[in-house]
Request: fold
Amino acid sequence: MQRRHVFRRIALASCAAMPVPMIVGCPAQTPSNAIAAETTRAIFQSPCAQDVIDCTTSWPVAVAGFAALPGQTVTQTDLGYLVEQPGALGLVPVYLIGSASTMGDGATQSTYSWSSGATQGDPCRLTPGDEFSTFPNPTVYLAPGFHNIRLTVENNIVRDVVESEVCGVLGESIPSFDFVELEVEVCD
Reply:
């Protein structure tokens, strides 16, 4: 845990050292899908990864990543990703990639849900936070700071009952699902 705090101090110091451009004229409109920075918390693993649910190959596998847009650098860190775009003036567009996810054996379709702001740490009730896109590869505007971004992938194999020895019944008549969370630090 201490390593996490050391990383943040170093990363925040490097962001603060960047020159801040002057804003001239009218400020740009805030995009409707702009997301404010969050308070820090540990990222969650999916119920399958935590062995809360006994998942098989028919369950989907969520795979999330990022790609740099023009003028950006995206660096993978031990905790997630650092996205830097000097001169972004407060909001940084981030290109998310979820299309490498797999739908699971026997499934014929899958859906995507990107969300942020999840606060529930209970492995039996890992609520997703606020959904901001249902596209496999969306672009979202993130404010400077830390973000916990979750990709949830569901397929069309409906489970009569999803239960676990640890949590009991997690849901009834729900699609098979998996999610992955990544921590993203954004610097402008």
Observations:
- The first strand starts at residue 34 and ends at 35.
- The beta strands are 34-35, 65-67, 73-76, 80-84, 92-97, 110-116, 130-133, 139-142, 145-164, 168-187.
- Residues 2-16 form the longest helix (15 residues).
